[in-house]
Amino acid sequence: MAKTAGPVCKNADMARDQPGPSADDLLVLLAVERSGRFSSAANELGVNHTTISRRIATLEAGLGGRVLIRAGGGWELTELGRGALRAAEGVEAAMRSLESGDESGHIEGVVRLSATDGFSAYIAAPAAARVQRQHPKVAVEIVAVTRRASQQRSGLDIEIVVGEPQLHRAQAIRLGDYRLGLYASRDYLVDHGTPGTVDDLADHPLVYFIDSMLQVDDLDLAPNFTPTMRESVSSTNVFVHVEATRASAGIGLLPCFMADRHGDLVRILDDTVATRLSYWLVTRQESLRRPEVSAVVDAIRAVVIEQRAELLGEN
Question: Domain residue spans in the chain?
């Protein structure tokens, strides 16, 4: 969650000489929008939950309407709230400029993103390092998880998911495709032979996701390509798939951009069992207006373009 610049008065009952919203109240709204929860915003600002609630109530009274509505386990902006948020972002930018003595629009803040394990390691991490080199005051938090895009605010600025998401009030950007194929270790093939046809796969165990815990429909591929294979080692983490396959636990259905890094793995049935999936970036217009978030998005897109051949297993 990005940190909100500037002090926030802890006395929510402090009298005001002039009607209308205060800068402090706007900054509280900014913190709630970025985290989706009053409790997270309170922790960020160093106040208690009650103070956040009172600040929002005061802001709504000054604006004459609701700025937040309940949505699932968090809060969503109303139309009035989106207008107030733009004002809050202006307050934050002005305070950052005053604090730094720099009016050149330097970028700083915290950007939190979630992505699958492989994307986190090989795309998001290099992109984050690139942003950090260009903007030393931008910190990037990467949460490695394989799931659908969240329908509610979840304290994330950016989500990377597999397959096109169906969402409201969010922007989905197609980043590019990647390829999965069947791999086995050289030692495994020496001991068990190399399958020559899809039918031959029935004699081999499969290394892939735990079927009952798989949350992403586009990754539910094994029944389509390898219906006769029995499960061997399964995991929610794709790095476990790669290492189990390298250890000769069976034949792995692996992302090519991960498996091709290992000289002890051999791609098999390449013309028969392979598929392309797509990575999508999910964010919100409110988040994209923050320069630190835009910088991370641009870096991710650049790294995906640079690694297109690896992602498609064309090296």
Answer: 23-100, 109-176+278-309, 177-276
- Segments in the chain below pLDDT 50: 1-7, 9-18, 103
Burial 14-24 (b: 16+ CB within 10 A, else e): eeeeeeebbbb
* CATH architecture of the domain covering 177-276: 3-Layer(aba) Sandwich (3.40)
Residues 250 and 204: beta-carbon distance below 8 Å = yes
pTM of the model: 0.72
Instruction: Tokens for 247, please give them.
Output: 């250890």
Handedness of CA 260, 265, 270, 275 (dihedral sign): negative
pLDDT at 15: 39
Contact in structure between 313 and 257 (CB atoms under 8 Å): yes
Q: Which CATH number fits domain 23-100: 1.10.10.10, 1.20.1540.10, 3.40.50.720, 2.40.170.20?
A: 1.10.10.10
